[in-house]
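#struct-pred
JK: can someone run the complex with zinc ion? inputs below
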Amino acid sequence: MHSEPRAYNLPVTSSPYLVNIATIVGKAGTMRTLELDFDAPERIGEGLGYIEKGTPIELDVRLEVLHDGILATASLESRMSGECSRCLTPLDEPLRVDFAELFAYARDEALEYEVHDDTVDLEPPVRDAVVLALPFQPVCRPDCLGLDPETGEKLVEPLEEQAPAVDPRWAALAGFGASTEAAEEPATGSEEVAGPRETDVREGTRNHDYKGESGQR
Ligand SMILES: [Zn+2]
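RT: done, structure tokens with the ligand placed:
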């Protein structure tokens, strides 16, 4: 009747990432699917974006028994926390990561993961896959402009100083290029810019590019 009290005395060593495969191990061709729902026991990721400790994780796993091991194909859904690398706004975004890894029965240097005591531990491949999937420099939005260096406020428009800070140098260079051309070949028109010397062509192209860019600002 009351058979459960003793069970609580069993050592609680189980990680939510551990999957017991005793019933399928060695049965090549067998397949098993399971859904693991748990809260991340530890934070995953050391950078600006990460899965925070305690964040719900949903792990859909398909285990296929092969002759030399267990192939685990998994899809993880959780949320990425962190902050925008430009404006430091807190981030909370859905995160989905897929991976497939073979857990070998026997030690194999070509394979990273092994079956231990009829279990597979999905934590290392989950960590590896999540860390790879997390953005190195997460942003709140692709066109985030960052912070105003003077006020520390989040910018809603590009800084106006940026355009003048770049323009004078290129304006000077453009003038230099023009005067050189004029001095060397005073008689040629603009269609002769693509002349015999490659350096002139490149200089001319570059000047045009920067004129176009500054014109937009
Ligand atoms: Zn931002």
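RT: quick notes.
The chain is about 25% helix and 25% strand.
The mean pLDDT is 79.
JK: thanks, will look after standup
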